């Protein structure tokens, strides 16, 4: 259910250019005028600047740039994604909390986001470096009505969304199948997809997104310096993680709706636009073997198509592309 605070933010936002009276807010929110006033005080504590005029009502003159549930929802134009947001200043891993929330009934579209993760995770027990305020560390809870074997398509979908959003900042992002976004050969973002499913039904998916936004080169630890980058390093601009998060969520909802209605085929072209080393020879590693092959593209179901030296073609559902 939509919270009163969120509804209040929406009403204030709809009336951004004018004042909205305490009476109107009280009627629309089904709460007393004193309760409206108390909510306003809470918003002020969050850093909102509120102009309150007798007989006119309330108007928000500026929203703070500190990340919180409220600031993320202020300006977020989505139908269902992010209607419920759990924001933590610090957390072990947004992914772990999101999985716990999903297992106990959190609704489709719930977001868990943190300023800092102390035990951020990558795939296969790898760690994800996620220090305070340096990037976007968030997990999305989805309950897609698709077959479990189609779940990897959602990772590709998220990758295209991130690539599209990043490309608005005068950089050239590329997607290294399946879950890395690179700029100039360095990793700017990683995606971690986890799910709970029965044979023919997904109970929930949790999509973890890590995106380096405002690090400068010296802020990465020694092991990441040669392989990681941030949007600030690549674009030369310091960016607002709140606005970037909103852009990702809005784009994601739009693309996800298209995917659910029309299938992966509608995304394939977009993925290919950002595909890393398409047509090039790469080193491939799976649990069983390592070899060189040429990336030919992706299959309609999102699998990677590789052409081997002997001319044979194979499709891969999980692998690491090394270089
Ligand atoms: C990933 O794994 O790339 C998935 C990362 C997902 C992180 C998000 S943050 C929100 C949510 N909560 C979590 O706990 N996780 C998700 P993988 O492909 O396995 O890549 C991991 C490797 O990337 C590490 O072994 C490092 O080499 C490198 N790495 C770690 N932190 C990095 C960073 N901040 N930027 C670039 N590369 C990094």
UniProtKB/TrEMBL annotation:
Catalyzed reaction equations: biotin + L-lysyl-[protein] + ATP = N(6)-biotinyl-L-lysyl-[protein] + AMP + diphosphate + H(+)
The BPL/LPL catalytic domain, residue ranges: 70-260
CDD domains membership: BPL (cd16442), HTH_ARSR (cd00090)
UniProt entry keywords in alphabetical sequence: ATP-binding, Biotin, DNA-binding, Ligase, Nucleotide-binding, Repressor, Transcription, Transcription regulation
GO biological process terms, semicolon-separated: protein lipoylation; regulation of DNA-templated transcription
Residues reported in the UniProt entry to bind biotin: 117, 121-123, 187
Gene Ontology molecular-function annotations: ATP binding; biotin--[biotin carboxyl-carrier protein] ligase activity; DNA binding; transferase activity
DNA-binding region listed in the record: 22-41
Classification via Gene3D superfamilies: 2.30.30.100, Bira Bifunctional Protein, Domain 2, Winged helix-like DNA-binding domain superfamily/Winged helix DNA-binding domain
Record flagged with keyword Nucleotide-binding: yes
Enzyme nomenclature, EC number: 6.3.4.15
GO cellular component, one term: cytoplasm
Superkingdom field: Bacteria
Stored NCBIfam families: birA_ligase
Family stated for the protein in its record: Belongs to the biotin--protein ligase family.
Protein role: Acts both as a biotin--[acetyl-CoA-carboxylase] ligase and a repressor.
UniProt-recorded name of the protein: Bifunctional ligase/repressor BirA
Organism: Aquibacillus koreensis
Lineage, top ranks: Bacteria, Bacillati, Bacillota, Bacilli, Bacillales
